[in-house]
Amino acid sequence: MFFDRPESGEISILVHISINSESERQDPEEFEELAISAGALPAAYLKGSRRHPSPNYFIGSGKLEELSAAVESHKAGLVLFNHSLSPSQERNLEKHLNCRVLDRTGLILDIFAQRARSHEGKLQVELAQLEHLSSRLTRGWTHLDRQKGGIGMRGAGEKQLELDQRMIRARIKGINKSLTKVRGQREQGRRARKRAEVPTVSLVGYTNAGKSTLFNQLTNAHTLAADKLFATLDSTLRKISLPNFGTAIMADTVGFISHLPHGLVEAFRATLEETAEANLLLHVIDASNDAHLEFVNEVNKVLTEIKADSVNQLEIMNKIDLTEESTPHIQRDESGKPVRVWVSAKTGVGMDLLLEAISELLGGKMAEEILLIQPHQAKLRSQLYEQGYIEEEQINEEGLYQLRVRMPAQELERFLSKGVVALPNTCLKSSQITGEATEILNDNIHTATN
Prior knowledge:
Layout: E1 11-19, H1 28-37, E2 41-50, H2 61-74, E3 78-81, H3 87-97, E4 100-102, H4 104-115, H5 119-134, H6 160-195, E5 200-205, H7 211-219, E6 236-242, E7 246-252, H8 262-267, H9 269-276, E8 280-286, H10 292-305, E9 313-318, E10 329-332, E11 338-342, H11 351-363, E12 366-373, H12 378-386, E13 390-395, E14 401-408, H13 409-416, E15 421-422, H14 435-449
Parallel strand pairs: 1-2, 1-3, 3-4, 5-7, 5-8, 8-9, 9-11
Antiparallel strand pairs: 6-7, 10-11, 12-14, 12-15, 13-14
Helix pairs in contact: 1-4, 4-5, 5-6, 6-9
């Protein structure tokens, strides 16, 4: 910090005040999880209610004395508020309590700083921290006045506060320049995937919903998956193979939380753009949490803020091993389109159904056909195998490859345009070619080759 403040400690006092004038209330239990996730050791939890926050200390005089006694009794070095404090409120509380004070935003920033591993993630966290800190410098250097005049006393003519603000602005400018470069690299990667016609599937969801565990199950990756809030900060991309579809890219992203500070959304915009540009969103939901419907609404709010609300979405009801609804299944809408899949990422139950639903949503309308590949079209046959479209293969009497395939209708049209011949639908249910179909086949092959 840029001013003298008491050293922070792990023994903490938590404060949650229900403000009657607030339309949306903070969750005190979630805040305790946040504190523990940051490494704090909560010694006491002070709760109360007020009509409006106090302009000086946020809490009233009685609660302030109670908080001061708790800090002294437990020898706490840190007080955490489940609210957004103004810079003056934070400073006044620190002076009165003689210990470090953090609001909800500061606590989330601290957790982000601990979790960031990649260069990009660290830049994004530092940007959010500096934006948050810039408004908290005022009166931080009141012991230093403007440089005095006289021999040997002349200086730059700036207060220390002004110097610090200028340094912060310069650092913010430098970080934004670096993140612009990162954003350009990500955009270049997305353009390359689009040219290669490789779709992107992005995992989104409330923090600790099980996104990273699901990501590891589907991709055989080894990203950090822990039972704590914001275990994942850095966006990770991995290739997955989908049945009857082919290759796709899966992205694991940072988890969302209620009242996510706007500065964090802005700082992580380079990462969150992977979500906005995805072909499909997998919205992972903790089915075992009674408040999961509220969490869904919070996630959708952030998706709207980053302009990703128009992306096709599939809900993943995770952790069914902890619920009564323990049978994995796919829920469909009236048109038969998958809208929700019940799985357990921890046990791996329902992963085959999830892959099936993803393939169906990415591929659109699926087609089942029997294709005939001539020997000189071996490259097309290889492509069909690479994409996982082939379910059965035989070689007929004419020495042609007879392939039973299930694939997106759009992809089928692409292969047919390259000279691949499809048998009539009357032959679809049988893996044997009838005499009549053989005649039609020969006519089609003759037409295709001439």
